[in-house]
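Researcher: I need the complex structure. Ligand is phosphoric acid mono(formamide)ester. Inputs:
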Amino acid sequence: MNSFLGIDTTDKADLRRMIDAARAMKDARAGQPRGAPDAEQPLRNRMVALIFEKPSTRTRVSFDLGVRQMGGQTMVLSGKEMQLGHGETIADTARVLSRYVDLIMIRTFEEVTLLEMAEYASVPVINGLTNRTHPCQIMADVMTFEEHRGPIAGKKVVWSGDGNNVCASMIHGAGQFGFDFTFTGPQPLDPEREALDFARAQGVQAVIERDPMKAVEGADLVVTDTWVSMHDPQSARERRHNQLRGYQVNKLLMGQAKPDALFMHCLPAHRDDEVTSEVMDGPNSVIFDEAENRLHAQKAVMRWCLAV
Ligand code: CP
Ligand code: NVA
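Model: Output:
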């Protein structure tokens, strides 16, 4: 039994096997209606709790669909409606849920909530996003890159904008999947030092370049995300827009990357803030493949968690 808490805390070889398994599962059901069951039903008789303390479209729908395709059942729970949001401890919630379900996915605020859930649950726990990380997203991103361009190892990935939760998991991904990483954004929004150190310790480049035009030179993949995340105060909006305006991913910036460089965004996007519609809808954008691959990648993650 394994919990999937972070890209950095999951074994490298296991991560690789999950990406390959996701690819195989996607291929195996090509052309099938979305609701059709997979030929294999590894989650038959399994119950999965999906807990959301923040909004979600992709994570919610892709986990729910993935469980159903693999023959399992889901309970989608909103944090606010649970006793968790009214004073019951995480530890007690984890112990109780472990008596009802076989697997827990949680999207929450503080990373410590996720870790406590995993510590006290006797079933595997999956990180569906915290303020600090978003590992499921990076599984889908690696899968998507490789689908279009082959192995990601040795490639150059550039993140332009806010050094947020998705960015931190991408940096962990650099270390685990062996790609070089460049962050470009304003200093107050730098990604956490620990993530950069983690990647460097795995022998890849993980650097900061303030000049976005320089940063994207030779990039194989350019990535951005919202300038204001769900955990950020709305009052920060105007300041962040001023800080980040120069890091918008637009045609000019993409022009500095390799001609076949891909563009990714975990979505939801704020069109014409962090990225122009021209880039989002342009020939190098793979944002909707990326969204679809959340489904396939997470199915592989769930199978790994349950060893089925
Ligand atoms: N990318 C992502 O996690 O999207 P949702 O917030 O819609 O789940
Ligand atoms: N950084 C964003 C990602 C949303 C999927 C947030 O945390 O709001």
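Model: Summary of the prediction. The chain has a mean pLDDT of 98.
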